[in-house]
C-alpha cells in the first residue's frame, strides 16, 4: 500500500492497526521509543484493546516491545474485556427492564458495534446508548417512576443522561434515534428514515439486547460522526466502527443508503469517510457508492490523527488561554471548507459565544480575571 502523506509516528500507528484488524502484514520491528509512542497513541485513540490483538499475533522477531510495557498493555486490554462484559450485562438489564414497562428498545453504537469486531471484547466502551420508544414525556415518566432519573437529570431534545451506576457505567436514554442534521429538511428526512428502520426490525442478540438494522446503523452513525466533527472531533475508533458496519452490511443495504445520502445531507461526509476507509484498510468492495474525496478525506484523517478520540487529545492544544481560543476560532474555517452547510450552525454558536463574553464582562471585572475557569459560580 502506498504510504500516506502523514508523519512516521502516525504511519506506525496505522500499520499496527491494519495488522490488528487482519488486513495488513506484520509491521517491522519498532524501537523501544516507538513502542511507547504506539501505546500512548493507542490510549489517545481509545484503541488499546484493539491494538493488543496485534501483539498477540506478532511474529517473535518483530515483538521488540519492552516487557514492562507489554505487561501494562496486556493488563489494560484485559480490563477493557472485563468492561465489555459489564457493559453487555447492563445493556441486557436495561433492555429487559424497559421492555417490561411496555417500551421498545435498541442499543445504539457502542456495544452493538463491538459485536462486529474480530474480538468483540477488544473494543473500548465509552457509555451505553439505548433508544426507547414512546417519546420524550413517556420515557421520562417511566425513568422517574423506576427511580432511574430525577428532576435534576441532564435532559436535552433527544436524550437524557442517567447518573453512573455502581460500576461507573454511563447511560444515555434516547427519545429520538439521532441528534439529526443541522438543516431542518435533511433532519426530517433522517428522523423519518431512522424511525421507519426501527419499526422494521430490531434483532435480539445472544448478549440479551437488541440491535438495529444495518441501514439504520449506516445512516445514524454517519450522522453521529458528522455531528461530532462539528462539535468536538472524531477519532479512529469511529472510523473502525463504520468499517465494521460496512463489512457486515449487504450490497442492498449499501445501495439503499447510498441513494439517500444527498437527501439526508450526508453526501460530503460520506465522500470523505469512504476515502479514509479505503486508504486505511485497502477497502474497495464494501464502500458506499459515492466518489471518494481525497482532499477532504486526507484533511479528515490528519485531523483525527492529531486530535485523538472525539477530539479530546489535540496535540496542538495551547497552554495559553488566548492562543487556544484563537486556534479554535481559526479551525472553524476548515470546517466551512469541508462542508459549507455548517455555516448556519457555526454562526449561531459564534453568536452565543460572543454574547456570553459580553454578559460575563462584569464577572471578569469583579474577579479581576480574563478567564472564569477558576470561578465556577460565574458560569451559570
Describe the structure.
It contains 16 helices and 7 strands. The chain is mainly alpha-helical and 380 residues long. The strands form 2 sheets. Strands 1-2-5-4-3 form a 5-stranded mixed beta sheet.
Structural class: mainly alpha
In percent terms, what proportion of residues is strand? 5-15%
The oligomerization state is single chain
Distance between the termini: 52 Å
Q: What is the string of helix and strand elements? A: HHHHEHEHEEEHEEHHHHHHHHH
Number of strands: 7
Uncertain runs are none
Portion of residues within helices: 55-70%
Radius of gyration: 22 Å
Described by strand count, sense and barrel closure, the largest sheet is: 5 strands, mixed
Spatial shape: globular
| Tally of alpha and pi helices | 16
Mean pLDDT: 89
| Spatial strand arrangement across the major sheet | 1-2-5-4-3
